[in-house]
Amino acid sequence: MDEQWWTDDDRLLEVLQDALASANDVPPSLVAAGKAVYAWRTIDAELAALTYDSAWESEAVDVTRTGETAALRRLTFASDQVSIELELTADELLGQLSPPQGGTVSLAAGSDDLGTTPVDEFGFFVVRPVPNRPFRITCRTDSGTTVTTGLVSP
What would the pLDDT profile of 6-56 be if each residue is shown by its tens digit? Predict the structure, then answer.
């Protein structure tokens, strides 16, 4: 067979592979637009206002356990429908909804979804580990209420 024919065929396959590979690349502007649209998914959520932060009073409260000191920060976010009380340590985020009710809690940092955890029928939830960057909490109760907090800085 003619050597030129194989060379042209190989070149054609290379060009086709390059075309298919570049077709799978998503333009950065499209990614940014997608993230912006995704951020609007909770636009109907009620914004819970920060009504208490233990950091306002002084440094974080020191709690002594068997000779070790742990920093504990307490926060309260309130809306017309639900209050979210949080206790933030280095290892975990403990929370309770008031009035007590079940549902789910989702954490997000910017447009990054950090996960979802269930809220039991008493309104309690635990998140481990604590995100290492500022995050928002969105609570969706079993009764249909959706509430989003402002940013929480760990």
Answer: 567 788 888 888 777 776 677 778 777 777 666 665 566 778 889 999 888
Render pLDDT for 87-122 as a digit per residue (tens, 0 to 9). Answer: 999 899 999 999 999 999 999 998 788 999 999 999
d(CA 49, CA 52): 9
DSSP one-letter code for 55: G
- The count of structural domains within the chain is 2
Question: How far is it, in rounded angstroms, from Cα 109 to Cα 39?
Answer: 11
Q: Find the domain containing 86 and state its range.
A: 45-149
Residue 81 lies in a domain: yes
Distances, alpha carbon 115 to alpha carbons 59, 70, 89, 135, in Å: 29, 25, 18, 11
Domain identity same for 51 and 34: no
- Give yes or no for a contact between 93 and 87, defined as CB atoms under 8 angstroms apart: yes
Tokens of 105: 């809690």
CA 98 to each of CA 41, 44, 118: distance values in angstroms, whole numbers, following the listed order: 24, 20, 15
Same domain, 30 and 95: no
